[in-house]
Amino acid sequence: MQFELYQWIVPVIGLFFISRTVIQFLKKKRTASGAAIWIFFWVTIIILAIVPDGIGGKIASILGFKDNVNAVIFVALGLLFIFIFYLSSVIERLETQLTELVRRLAIEEQRKQHNKE
Questions:
Q1: Which of 18, 93, 14, 86 minimizes the C-alpha distance to 26?
Q2: pLDDT (tens digit, 9 = 90+) per residue, 55-71?
């Protein structure tokens, strides 16, 4: 079995991002669940790069696609939509928390000014 160029490059890039994710987790810049999701993602990408026909063929047969490339693209798009949904949920939660915090600070500031008078 002869490796193509991408089969060497993708694992190197994946290992770089896995190490970066672990470092961010150790520095408390990522949660354990967030780090686990990204590590799982990059390990999956590495495996798909090293053994594209085996994994792609199994995905194609499970999902009923005739071509393994179409199956991999379909699954990748599905994963991207899941990531986008997750990120939009996180952003909405942060916006809500920020709004509540600003309101509490405004009420507290108003009370302080009222007590001074």
A1: 18
A2: 777 777 887 877 777 77
